[in-house]
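Need the bound structure for S-adenosylmethionine, inputs here:
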Amino acid sequence: MPVEQVIEQEPGAAAVLAGDRIDVLREFAADLGARGEELGLIGPLEAPRLWTRHVVNSALLAPLIGAGARVADIGTGGGMPGLVLAIVRPDARFLLIEPMERRCSWLSEQIEVLGLSNAEVRRGRAEEFHGAFEVDQVTARAVTALRKLVPLTAPLLRDGGEMLFLKGSSVESEIEAASKVLQKHRVRGAEVAELGAELASDGLLAETTRVFRAKIVRHG
Ligand SMILES: C[S@@+](CC[C@H](N)C(=O)[O-])C[C@H]1O[C@@H](n2cnc3c(N)ncnc32)[C@H](O)[C@@H]1O
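Answer from helper R.:
Posting the output first, comments after.
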């Protein structure tokens, strides 16, 4: 698929979010659009809306990543949001946790081709890394419901570390269903952040994005 078709509307939003990394982001999106379906990374209907629905959607998290933070992205798949964030936030370090071999090969190839020195792939399920490392922030998109995602990710966070999960319109009911799990894992200050409002009102984004945001407080 030609790059022009992959990178369709709303280049303005991406430019605002990606700054001087926009060309690297475009290179990644073009390759994912061209090979993603064949590699089983994206569905057959996704290529034309890859840029807005997936790449820009992931980049919206960029302002919430701490300066110099160590971040684990769970279930990165074709690169969302972890690889996109590694592109636009070169100051932070990203561990891309993904169990599927083919997806890991794709991610490693992209890291090499795009020259990203701040991203590493760790093959495996999130729960296999409990006790292996602790990070400042965990991110995830389209992996599983909150009540399952919290037990998978909480043990990967340092005390005071933060969860940032891109979620859909069902986020409030997911929070309700996860209430016991949130308590058990000492998740505090849970809120839903609405991202991209300014860009949407400027006509640079079709819609806003919802993010579950909360911290782990083990002591105190
Ligand atoms: C629907 S895909 C979403 C991929 C990507 N996050 C996105 O938004 O396009 C879910 C991904 O989560 C991965 N996954 C499922 N369970 C996982 C677990 N326990 N730990 C880490 N990754 C997991 C799958 O292999 C798959 O790549």
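Comments: Confidence is low (pLDDT under 50) at residues 1-9. The beta strands are 70-74, 93-98, 119-123, 135-141, 157-167, 187-195, 209-216.
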